């Protein structure tokens, strides 16, 4: 990066660092948010998915003056929170009730909401925590039903707004059902347990179906082994147990898909968040971020984060009708993807996902499945382009550049040999380029935004390769005095196109959709380019030398001729 760029980056990071605490109340002094409980985090509006955090109380009934323990806990970390008690009969009223006592004044502080000291609790810093315990004292004028609410900030814009907690009732009050509780069912996520040991690929094909990458690897010994297994549970096969393992760089996931394209898929994720793992299910509707993270429908969740690998196991019923999950008694393509995470949120997969070669009936017999990270259509694109620009195009330009003087007296279908060969090969190059050009667009169903400069250069190459034959069709006759203009532009555009094509190929080798062996593919390509370039230089010298000697010979011949003429006269 240039010094100017570095300077700018530094300035920018300083700006961000100094700015963030002011804008996000990392110090927890959020009395402004007393009523709405909404943090003012860049206009973010809160997560709509099921909260990974929950509130618990140690009692469901109370008398005025009682002390009640309130616990905020989560399956993942949080950086901030705002906790209040409110009148459950008037959930829309914005006034906080009762007062809190802190158990750990270093990590939390009391706030004064609606002029009532200690009626809310918040964090003191954005240090990450997973549990907060406070004591709430019921006031003398307490309403009959009190409900706890909490807003939890996982990180900056990622927060859950006003998560409803338990309702507690004054002694002697018969609880009546609440609308708020029926519209916001607080599904208690099953507490995940730690796996006793690593998974093993033993039993793959016998007791469970497995998808492994690289083929035959063992997740017990190799942390870089991507492993997914599934086995039916119970005699009546009503549920399926899944296991997932991969390098602990962020997350590992698998998806059930009707086709081999991303989109409309049922996704299961194991996400690393510092030293714990959260397991969730989601839905991917397009080439987008998975929606609706939740643990709903998953049971017997357990995980392990050790020896450089992230592993998780869970079960789910074969049919889960109202949850938007796919039925497991069907055949699906399986996707295995991994990538990085930030604050427990997943980033786009860093490599092309591994896609099973065939559809697999999830409840079907145990099998060892095969998969590939490179789609056939992208392999075709690469192969055709290489064929066009490393073979036909290359030989075609060689012929035109260096073989014009050869076979002077022979013709092929009524034209000079070099011309027929040149034209044939170049037409083939153009056809191959056009066909190969379309394939990635078919695969991506549009323009790929993360392929960098490669597609842009590819478009230039295509346009130039189409201009060349069209221009050649309208070339002036050989004896025209404008012919040299055509010759010059035709060969210049040709050379320029070839250079662009080489650059495009070099960028193409690094594309994630075609996982070629990393340094080797580029080295082979560079080796080839050097070879072609040196051959051209050598042949260029050779033809110049030949022209030179030819003109010397003809000059000599002319001199001889003149002398003879003189002698005769
Ligand atoms: C709940 O916890 C508070 C504070 O620890 C305690 O005073 C109270 O007796 C507990 N209530 C019940 C029902 O256990």
Which features would summarize this protein structure in a list?
elongated; binds 2-acetamido-2-deoxy-beta-D-glucopyranose; 32% helix; alpha+beta; Immunoglobulin-like; Four Helix Bundle (Hemerythrin (Met), subunit A); nine-stranded antiparallel β-sheet; 569 residues; seven-stranded mixed β-sheet
Bound ligand species: 2-acetamido-2-deoxy-beta-D-glucopyranose
Mean pLDDT, as a whole number? 84
What do we call the CATH topology of the largest domain? Immunoglobulin-like
Strand content: 25-35%
Radius of gyration, CA atoms, in whole angstroms: 35 Å
Q: Specify the CATH class of the largest domain.
A: Mainly Beta
CATH architectural designation of the largest domain: Sandwich
Helix and strand content put the structural class at alpha+beta
How many domains, as an integer? 3
Q: What is the tally of helical segments? A: 7
Termini gap: 79 Å
> Which ranges are low-confidence, i.e. pLDDT below 50, for 5 or more consecutive residues?
1-23, 179-189
Specify the biggest β-sheet: 9 strands, antiparallel
Helical proportion? 25-40%
Number of strands: 28
Q: How would you sum up the global shape?
A: elongated
Architecture blueprint of SSEs:
Blueprint lengths: L2 H22 L28 E5 L3 E2 L4 E12 L1 E8 L11 E4 L5 E6 L2 E8 L5 E9 L7 E11 L2 E13 L8 H5 L9 E2 L14 E5 L12 E8 L5 E9 L2 E8 L7 E9 L2 E9 L6 E4 L4 E8 L2 E9 L13 E12 L2 E5 L4 E3 L3 E2 L6 E2 L1 E2 L3 H27 L8 E2 L2 E2 H28 L9 H20 L9 H27 L8 H51 L1
Parallel strand pairs: 2-10, 11-19, 12-25
Antiparallel strand pairs: 1-3, 3-8, 4-7, 4-9, 5-8, 6-7, 9-10, 12-13, 13-14, 14-20, 15-16, 15-21, 16-17, 17-18, 19-20, 21-22, 21-23, 21-24, 23-26, 27-28
The structure holds 2-acetamido-2-deoxy-beta-D-glucopyranose.
């Amino acid at each position: 990066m240039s010094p100017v760029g570095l300077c700018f980056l530094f300035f920018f990071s300083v700006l961000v660092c100094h700015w963030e605490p002011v804008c996000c109340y990392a110090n927890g002094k959020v009395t402004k948010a007393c009523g709405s409980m909404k943090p003012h985090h860049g206009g973010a509006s809160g997560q709509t998915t099921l909260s990974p955090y929950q509130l618990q109380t140690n009692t469901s009934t109370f008398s005025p003056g009682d002390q009640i323990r309130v616990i905020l806990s989560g399956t993942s970390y949080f950086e901030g929170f705002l906790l209040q008690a409110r009148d459950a009969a008037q959930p829309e009223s914005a006034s906080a009730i009762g007062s809190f006592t802190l158990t750990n004044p270093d990590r939390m502080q009391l706030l004064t909401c609606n002029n009532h000291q200690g009626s809310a609790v918040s964090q003191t810093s954005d240090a990450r925590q997973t549990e907060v315990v406070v004591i709430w004292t019921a006031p003398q004028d307490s309403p009959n039903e009190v409900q706890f609410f909490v807003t939890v900030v996982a990180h900056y814009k990622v927060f859950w707004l006003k998560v409803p907690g338990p309702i507690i009732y004054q002694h002697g009050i018969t609880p009546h059902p609440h609308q708020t509780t029926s519209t916001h069912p607080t599904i208690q996520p099953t507490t995940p347990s730690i796996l006793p040991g690593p998974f093993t690929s033993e039993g793959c094909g016998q007791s469970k179906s497995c998808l492994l990458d690289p083929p035959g690897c063992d997740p017990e010994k190799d942390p870089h082994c991507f492993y997914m297994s599934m086995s039916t549970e119970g005699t009546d096969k009503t549920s399926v147990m899944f296991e997932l393992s991969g390098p602990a760089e962020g997350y590992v996931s698998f998806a059930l898909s009707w086709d081999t394209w991303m989109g409309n898929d049922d996704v299961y994720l194991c996400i690393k968040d510092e030293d714990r793992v959260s397991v969730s299910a989601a839905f991917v509707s397009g080439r987008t971020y998975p929606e609706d993270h939740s643990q709903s429908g998953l049971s017997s969740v357990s995980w392990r984060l050790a020896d450089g690998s992230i592993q998780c196991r869970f079960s789910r019923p074969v049919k889960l009708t109202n949850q938007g999950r796919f039925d497991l008694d069907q055949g699906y393509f399986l996707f295995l993807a991994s990538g990085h995470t930030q604050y427990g949120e997943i980033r786009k997969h860093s490599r092309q996902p591994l896609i099973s070669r065939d559809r697999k009936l999830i409840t079907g017999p145990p099998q060892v499945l095969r998969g590939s990270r490179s789609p056939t259509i992208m392999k075709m694109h690469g192969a055709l382009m290489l064929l066009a620009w490393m073979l036909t195009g290359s030989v075609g330009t060689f012929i035109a550049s260096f073989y014009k003087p050869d076979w002077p007296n022979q013709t092929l279908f009524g034209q000079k040999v070099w011309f027929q060969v040149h034209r044939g090969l170049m037409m083939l190059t153009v056809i191959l380029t056009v066909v190969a050009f379309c394939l990635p667009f078919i695969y991506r169903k549009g323009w790929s935004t993360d392929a960098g400069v490669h597609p842009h250069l590819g478009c230039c190459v295509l346009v130039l390769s189409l201009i060349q034959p069209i221009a050649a069709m309208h070339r002036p006759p050989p004896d025209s005095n404008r012919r040299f203009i055509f010759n010059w532009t035709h060969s210049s555009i040709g050379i320029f196109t070839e250079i662009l094509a080489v650059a495009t190929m070099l960028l193409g080798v690094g594309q994630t959709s075609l996982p070629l062996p990393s340094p080797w593919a580029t080295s082979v390509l560079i080796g080839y380019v050097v070879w072609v370039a040196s051959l051209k230089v050598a042949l260029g010298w050779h033809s110049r030398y030949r022209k030179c000697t030819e003109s010397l010979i003809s000059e000599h011949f002319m001199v001889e001729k003149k002398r003879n003429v003189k002698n005769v006269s």
